[in-house]
Amino acid sequence: MAGPRWTCQRFDDLTVRGLYRVMRLRSEVFVIEQRCIYLDPDGLDEPAWHLQGVSADETLLAYARLLPPSIGGGAARIGRVITAANARGGGLGRALMSQAVRECQKLWPGTPIELGAQAHLREFYGSFGFTPTSDVYDEDGIPHIDMRKEATP
Protein backbone atom coordinates (compact mmCIF):
# COMPACT_ATOMS: atom_id res chain seq x y z
CA MET A 1 0.00 0.00 0.00
CA ALA A 2 1.33 3.42 -0.93
CA GLY A 3 1.58 6.05 1.76
CA PRO A 4 -1.34 8.39 2.33
CA ARG A 5 -1.81 11.80 0.81
CA TRP A 6 -1.55 14.35 3.64
CA THR A 7 -3.81 17.39 3.84
CA CYS A 8 -4.05 19.94 6.62
CA GLN A 9 -7.16 22.12 6.51
CA ARG A 10 -9.01 24.64 8.59
CA PHE A 11 -12.47 23.57 9.73
CA ASP A 12 -14.25 25.81 7.22
CA ASP A 13 -12.24 24.27 4.37
CA LEU A 14 -13.34 20.71 5.14
CA THR A 15 -16.00 19.31 2.84
CA VAL A 16 -19.12 17.85 4.40
CA ARG A 17 -17.95 14.41 3.27
CA GLY A 18 -14.47 15.05 4.71
CA LEU A 19 -15.89 16.19 8.05
CA TYR A 20 -18.12 13.11 8.15
CA ARG A 21 -15.08 10.84 7.59
CA VAL A 22 -13.20 12.58 10.41
CA MET A 23 -16.09 12.33 12.88
CA ARG A 24 -16.76 8.71 11.91
CA LEU A 25 -13.12 7.64 12.42
CA ARG A 26 -12.91 9.50 15.72
CA SER A 27 -16.10 7.74 16.89
CA GLU A 28 -14.88 4.32 15.68
CA VAL A 29 -11.62 4.64 17.61
CA PHE A 30 -12.48 6.67 20.70
CA VAL A 31 -16.11 5.71 21.38
CA ILE A 32 -16.40 2.15 20.05
CA GLU A 33 -12.86 0.75 20.26
CA GLN A 34 -11.64 2.56 23.39
CA ARG A 35 -15.11 2.86 24.98
CA CYS A 36 -14.67 6.52 25.90
CA ILE A 37 -18.09 8.06 26.24
CA TYR A 38 -17.73 11.82 25.87
CA LEU A 39 -18.90 14.60 23.59
CA ASP A 40 -16.34 14.44 20.80
CA PRO A 41 -17.44 17.67 19.05
CA ASP A 42 -16.14 19.72 21.98
CA GLY A 43 -16.11 23.20 20.46
CA LEU A 44 -12.41 23.02 19.57
CA ASP A 45 -12.79 21.68 16.04
CA GLU A 46 -13.72 25.04 14.54
CA PRO A 47 -10.51 26.92 15.49
CA ALA A 48 -8.36 23.85 14.75
CA TRP A 49 -6.44 22.61 11.74
CA HIS A 50 -7.32 19.06 10.70
CA LEU A 51 -4.48 16.83 9.50
CA GLN A 52 -5.68 13.90 7.44
CA GLY A 53 -3.90 10.99 5.80
CA VAL A 54 -6.10 9.77 2.97
CA SER A 55 -5.69 6.75 0.68
CA ALA A 56 -5.99 6.82 -3.12
CA ASP A 57 -9.67 5.83 -2.81
CA GLU A 58 -10.28 8.70 -0.32
CA THR A 59 -10.44 6.46 2.76
CA LEU A 60 -9.34 8.32 5.90
CA LEU A 61 -6.43 6.33 7.34
CA ALA A 62 -4.97 8.74 9.91
CA TYR A 63 -5.98 11.97 11.61
CA ALA A 64 -4.79 14.53 14.15
CA ARG A 65 -6.31 17.78 15.34
CA LEU A 66 -3.91 20.71 15.64
CA LEU A 67 -4.87 23.54 17.98
CA PRO A 68 -3.28 26.97 17.66
CA PRO A 69 -1.32 28.53 20.54
CA SER A 70 -4.21 30.94 21.18
CA ILE A 71 -6.29 27.93 22.27
CA GLY A 72 -3.48 25.85 23.77
CA GLY A 73 -2.31 28.37 26.39
CA GLY A 74 0.64 29.63 24.35
CA ALA A 75 1.64 26.25 22.91
CA ALA A 76 0.34 24.49 19.82
CA ARG A 77 -1.51 21.32 20.78
CA ILE A 78 -1.78 18.00 18.96
CA GLY A 79 -4.82 15.91 19.85
CA ARG A 80 -7.31 13.33 18.63
CA VAL A 81 -4.37 11.37 17.18
CA ILE A 82 -5.73 8.25 15.46
CA THR A 83 -5.07 5.67 12.80
CA ALA A 84 -7.77 3.46 11.34
CA ALA A 85 -7.69 -0.08 12.76
CA ASN A 86 -7.13 -1.63 9.32
CA ALA A 87 -4.16 0.68 8.65
CA ARG A 88 -2.13 -0.08 11.79
CA GLY A 89 1.15 -1.92 12.06
CA GLY A 90 2.97 -0.39 9.11
CA GLY A 91 4.37 2.79 10.62
CA LEU A 92 1.42 5.04 9.81
CA GLY A 93 1.24 6.34 13.40
CA ARG A 94 4.87 7.42 13.19
CA ALA A 95 4.24 9.07 9.81
CA LEU A 96 1.18 10.84 11.25
CA MET A 97 3.11 12.23 14.22
CA SER A 98 6.03 13.33 12.03
CA GLN A 99 3.59 15.16 9.78
CA ALA A 100 1.71 16.67 12.75
CA VAL A 101 4.92 18.06 14.25
CA ARG A 102 5.98 19.46 10.85
CA GLU A 103 2.59 21.11 10.34
CA CYS A 104 2.67 22.70 13.81
CA GLN A 105 6.18 24.01 13.20
CA LYS A 106 5.11 25.40 9.82
CA LEU A 107 1.87 26.98 11.08
CA TRP A 108 3.27 28.31 14.37
CA PRO A 109 7.07 28.61 14.08
CA GLY A 110 9.02 29.03 17.30
CA THR A 111 6.14 27.70 19.40
CA PRO A 112 6.28 24.69 21.73
CA ILE A 113 3.92 21.78 21.08
CA GLU A 114 1.94 19.95 23.75
CA LEU A 115 -0.21 16.84 23.85
CA GLY A 116 -2.03 14.60 26.28
CA ALA A 117 -0.66 11.12 25.59
CA GLN A 118 -1.98 7.76 26.62
CA ALA A 119 0.62 6.76 29.20
CA HIS A 120 1.64 3.56 27.42
CA LEU A 121 2.69 5.68 24.40
CA ARG A 122 5.11 7.84 26.42
CA GLU A 123 8.20 6.41 24.69
CA PHE A 124 6.59 6.70 21.25
CA TYR A 125 5.96 10.42 21.74
CA GLY A 126 9.34 10.77 23.43
CA SER A 127 10.95 9.64 20.17
CA PHE A 128 9.62 12.89 18.63
CA GLY A 129 11.20 15.03 21.35
CA PHE A 130 8.22 15.23 23.73
CA THR A 131 8.98 15.08 27.46
CA PRO A 132 6.51 14.51 30.33
CA THR A 133 5.17 17.58 32.12
CA SER A 134 2.72 15.84 34.47
CA ASP A 135 2.21 12.73 36.49
CA VAL A 136 -0.01 10.02 35.04
CA TYR A 137 -3.71 10.84 35.39
CA ASP A 138 -7.00 9.20 34.45
CA GLU A 139 -8.91 10.50 31.44
CA ASP A 140 -12.05 8.56 30.52
CA GLY A 141 -10.70 5.45 32.23
CA ILE A 142 -7.37 5.51 30.36
CA PRO A 143 -4.06 6.55 32.00
CA HIS A 144 -2.69 9.70 30.33
CA ILE A 145 0.33 11.94 30.73
CA ASP A 146 0.87 15.51 29.51
CA MET A 147 3.91 16.00 27.29
CA ARG A 148 5.67 18.95 25.65
CA LYS A 149 8.13 19.48 22.83
CA GLU A 150 10.06 22.72 23.17
CA ALA A 151 10.21 25.10 20.23
CA THR A 152 13.03 24.66 17.78
CA PRO A 153 14.90 27.80 16.73
UniProtKB/TrEMBL annotation:
Keywords: Transferase
Domain N-acetyltransferase: start-end pairs: 9-152
SUPFAM superfamilies, sorted: Acyl-CoA N-acyltransferases (Nat)
Domain of life: Bacteria
Gene3D superfamilies: 3.40.630.30
Molecular function terms, GO-annotated: acyltransferase activity, transferring groups other than amino-acyl groups
Coiled coil: none
Taxonomic source organism: Roseateles aquatilis
Pfam families: Acetyltransf_10
Name this polypeptide is given: GNAT family N-acetyltransferase
